[in-house]
């Protein structure tokens, strides 16, 4: 409800603002362009950047390194615990930051209300514009214009415990590639000590990140391409939900309480050896490889596809955007380009468990030393996310549908048909 109030409020405020300034393109305001062109190394420039908790440290380091190269520019980085809500409040008060590192799935909404600067021409001039994944670029656009660039992706992949595989007589170097193989492996792996598979059945965001790729691998989707209608009531999505119901209720390869797990509980079950397989993000891969959870021998693969052909991944993480009220969009853009350089994308992002947004930057010593990162690179290539102007508002009906089916209160068809109706009502508002 809080987000909806903000949305209504912002739509009026932002549109009114745009009427007065004639748009939000970097090149649309001639007076600003003139001022930007006149900026010299002797002019002091101070810009603000807001970042989510996971990205604050990297953004802070990037700002410091950029300042070393450009002493006249100071980028003040602030961590925001509830960035979307705080950004909405700032917009309503015309007090937004100059640059924002934002969850990529929220870019379409903020682009649609005129809160972000059109950087289409700027991106088209980049030498490495074609190195971004199609899925991440899609989230950065609205009405064929681009309002952000991918910064720190997080992709979903299958992780498995190699020691458990050995104990069950499975090849530790061969992950399940199909749904049938996932069931077969999970049944062999399930013992009194650990479950064969685990997922975050009680977490809306976690289910989006880890379950939705199963829908995609079955040639289904959450929404239509333009985000205007739910497709959860289609056979492909229903079949994927039924598959998850069967993992718990038919094959019994998950913990009995998995339907209430949040993302952290699913992670803990795997990292403590209580589960043999789980879908997590690329950041978790880094944490495990670097001993954050003790000495675990893990394998990593793409998420099993229905028939072992249409592999997919949920591609989340953050994108960088310039706000509509940026004091100096040219300098802001220069800083963003620096954030996409090897200096930051490899030397810094990697230290915090993140993978580069640019595919060409996987070819370096750091990532080549860890074969696991080859899988995350492949996941990024096939990664995507539902495109919606009301992404967060879909959480409740989506989770309600999954819960109803997993807890056997409804059939999979009934649950997702109901969820689709509720989501469509939200999308039509």
Automatic annotation (TrEMBL):
Gene3D superfamilies attached to this UniProt entry: Periplasmic binding protein-like II (3.40.190.10)
Q: Which InterPro entries match?
A: SBP (IPR006059)
Cross-referenced CDD domains: PBP2_UgpB
- Please give the Pfam families that the UniProt record associates with this protein: SBP_bac_1 (PF01547)
Task: Provide the GO biological process annotations.
Answer: maltodextrin transmembrane transport; maltose transport
- Please give an example of a GO cellular component term from this record: ATP-binding cassette (ABC) transporter complex, substrate-binding subunit-containing
Keywords of this entry: Signal, Transport
For this UniProt entry, which residues form the secretion signal?
Answer: 1-22
State if Lyase is listed as a keyword. no
Q: Which GO terms describe its molecular function?
A: maltose binding
Protein family according to the UniProt entry: Belongs to the bacterial solute-binding protein 1 family.
**What's the name of the protein?**
ABC transporter substrate-binding protein
Its source organism is: Blautia liquoris
């Amino acid at each position: 409800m809080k987000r909806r109030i903000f949305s209504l409020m912002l739509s009026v405020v932002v549109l009114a603002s745009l009427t007065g300034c004639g748009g939000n393109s970097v090149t649309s305001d001639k007076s600003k362009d003139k001022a930007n062109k006149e900026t010299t190394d002797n002019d002091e420039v101070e810009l603000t950047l807001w970042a989510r908790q996971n990205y604050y440290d990297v953004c802070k380091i990037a700002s410091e390194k950029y300042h070393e190269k450009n002493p006249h520019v100071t980028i003040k980085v602030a961590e925001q615990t509830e960035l979307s809500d705080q950004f909405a409040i700032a917009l309503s008060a015309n007090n937004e930051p100059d640059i924002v590192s934002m969850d990529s799935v929220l870019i379409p909404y903020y682009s649609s209300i005129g809160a972000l600067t059109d950087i289409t021409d700027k991106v088209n001039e980049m030498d490495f514009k074609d190195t971004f994944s199609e899925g991440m670029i899609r989230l950065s656009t609205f009405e064929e214009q681009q309002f952000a660039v991918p910064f720190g992706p997080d992709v979903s992949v299958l992780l498995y415990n190699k020691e458990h595989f050995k104990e069950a007589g499975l090849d530790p170097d061969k992950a399940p590639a199909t749904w049938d193989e996932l069931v077969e492996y999970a049944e062999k792996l399930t013992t009194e000590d650990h479950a064969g598979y685990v997922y975050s059945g009680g977490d809306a965001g976690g289910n989006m990140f880890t379950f939705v790729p199963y829908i995609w691998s079955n040639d289904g989707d959450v929404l239509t391409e333009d985000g205007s209608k739910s497709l959860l009531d289609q056979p492909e999505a229903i079949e994927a939900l039924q598959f998850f119901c069967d993992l718990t209720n038919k094959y019994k390869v998950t913990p009995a309480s998995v339907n209430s797990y949040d993302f952290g509980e699913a992670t803990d079950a795997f990292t403590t050896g209580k589960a043999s397989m789980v879908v997590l993000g690329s950041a978790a891969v880094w944490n495990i490889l670097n001993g954050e959870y003790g000495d675990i021998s893990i394998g990593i693969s793409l998420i099993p596809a229905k028939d072992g052909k249409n592999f997919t991944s949920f591609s989340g993480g953050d994108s960088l955007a310039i706000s509509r009220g940026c004091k100096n969009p040219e300098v802001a853009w220069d800083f963003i380009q620096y954030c996409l350089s090897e200096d930051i994308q490899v030397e810094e992002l990697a230290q915090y468990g993140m993978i580069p947004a640019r595919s060409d930057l996987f070819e370096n010593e750091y990532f080549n030393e860890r074969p696991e990162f080859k899988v995350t690179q492949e996941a990024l290539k096939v990664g995507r996310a539902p495109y919606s102007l009301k992404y967060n508002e879909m959480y409740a009906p989506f989770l309600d549908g999954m819960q109803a089916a997993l807890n056997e209160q409804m059939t999979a068809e009934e649950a997702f048909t109901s969820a689709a109706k509720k989501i469509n009502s939200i999308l039509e508002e």
